[in-house]
Amino acid sequence: MPQSLSRRSLLGAAAAAGAAGALAAPTAATAGGAGHGRGRVPRDQISVQLYTLRNQLSIDLEASLAELAEIGYTRVEHAGFVGRTAAQFRAALDNAGLRATSGHVGIPQPFDADTWKRSLEEAAIVGNKYIVHPYFGFGADGPIRDAAVYRAFAADLDRAGALARRAGLSFGYHNHQAEFFPQTRNVRPGTRVTGFDIITGETDPRNVHLEVDLFWAFRGASDPVDLIKKHRGRIRQVHVKDLDANAGFADPGDGVIDFGRIFEHSREAGLVEYIVERDDAGSPPRTSADALVTAQRGYAYLEGLRF
Q1: Closest alpha carbon to 281 in 269, 294, 268
Q2: Is 35 helix (H, G, I), strand (E, B) or coil?
Q3: Distance in angstroms (rounded) separating the CA atoms of residues 216 and 40
Q4: Which of 6, 51, 202, 262 is the most buried (most CB within 10 A)?
Q5: pLDDT tens by residue, 4-51
Q6: What's the whole-model pTM score?
Q7: Is residue 251 within 8 Å of 215, Cβ to Cβ?
Q8: 48 touches 77 (CB < 8 A)
Q9: DSSP readout, 72-91?
Q10: What pLDDT score does 38 carry?
Q11: All residues at 6 or more sequence positions from 306 whose CB lies less than 8 Å from its CB, including other chains
Q12: Greatest CA separation found in the chain?
């Protein structure tokens, strides 16, 4: 990055490059169908999933983290260490005044306790409070529809969560859409069970909390409010990712998801982190720096949301 490009000008460059007409953050009166004024998202519980900024972080990790802090973030959720060691990544966060309270780390498959313990050690170095398995549900032939596969995976999740709990960490599971598909093999005739049912039903809530990705829940045809009512106190984190009219990604507040309706149930859910994310935020045709615009808009939206 050129020396002349300061941290403050970085976001301005991003806006000019790809979002000049859309930079103004949505207000509580216009965004997400909310505005009742009874509740709000605590600022210190707003986070951002760094996968959103993966391309920009690879260009300049330190300046990008500093920009997140200037936007107002105090915490982030990492997805890897951007080519650094855990200690180096922690140092970059510390320099920016950020905490990586959460991190996406896949459990070993097949499960290996020693390998997982090393991941837990790295999580402690980075300063994580939460460690979350990021992805399951698809095999070589597409979505997994065999309940036996989910049962075996749920057993591994529970083992991983028990080890995490002993290490002082809260272990979570992050969904996509395939978990909500009904299983067709190794199920009792006449019954309907989804992968998500198996994951939640065959893991101990003390070992495995839920990080519900609101976008992917809707794509899996599951209402997050119904998930909250079914799993009271277990949904500790959410990914605040919006859905556009074509079922694609949108910046928080720009799409069709009524986040206010969901967050009215935050206490019932057990929510402690609201994590801004957009999977394509810095991918073509958007520029890498456009991900900073998404981060800014997401923070402003959550800060201004009333429900």
Answers
A1: 294
A2: coil
A3: 23
A4: 262
A5: 334 444 444 344 433 333 333 343 333 444 445 579 999 999 999 999
A6: 0.90
A7: no
A8: yes
A9: T--EEEESS-TTS-HHHHHH
A10: 77
A11: 28, 34, 35, 36, 37, 38, 39, 40, 260
A12: 67
